[in-house]
Design goal:
heterodimer, A: alpha+beta, Immunoglobulin-like, 2 domains, 5-stranded mixed β-sheet, 24% helix, elongated, disordered C terminus, B: mainly alpha, 2 helices, binds copper (II) ion
Amino acid sequence: MHIHRFEKVWLALALVFILGLISTIAYGAVGPGIEMIDAEGGTVDPQNLDETEFADPGVEQVGEDEYEVYVVAKQFSFEPGTPANGVIRVPANSEVTFYVTSQDVVHGFEVVGTNLNTMAIPGQVSKMTVEFGDAATYGIVCNEYCGAAHHAMEGRIVVVPESEYEGPGATNATSGNETTTNASVAAAQQVAGSATEVTA
Amino acid sequence: MSTETAGEDDEHFDPIGTATLIGIYMAIVVLMWIFTYFIEFLGRGLTIVG
Ligand SMILES: [Cu+2]
């Protein structure tokens, strides 16, 4: 079989290109240590989150600079995350593992402008570890349509300077927040209500 | 038309314009991949590492 020399060059370049694609992915795994979210987080019963580690969601310190954050996504807030439920507060230069699940429908958990992004699926736990650097504030949005107030479902991660970090306890929603929580739920229900009226 | 006598054909048919065009496309794709992966993806700060 005769192959034109131009074609030989093209075949060789195409092979080199494919090898290049594969090696950048390999570099991503070895160099920056990029991982995919898989089934490692396990499953939970979304009807009975009270009997799981999601009963009292929030930040826990598990090592010197290591933290775990349990987040429950629900219509239409993150707990913690949404200011009414208490924002997520972690210190700078820490390694944080998020466990995210949903208690009702499918939600999204996207930290805006970063690669931290997962679905929050009822019954499943998304586990992901991130290294936070300097102090900063990140926004969280729900990127899966989840109902009438989907557009209002957002939250915040505040990375505070190590010297100003008061500990994980300050993150959990406390009874002092209940009034605002109820107010935001009422607001969400109002939005849901008016949306129903429009449809009806 | 027999292809067995090939070799001679090459000298008469070198689609240099097409080859140049494909070369330019290739370069664009390579640059776009580098931009997408190293700048847009890896440059986005927080990344899942576990
Ligand atoms: Cu949602």
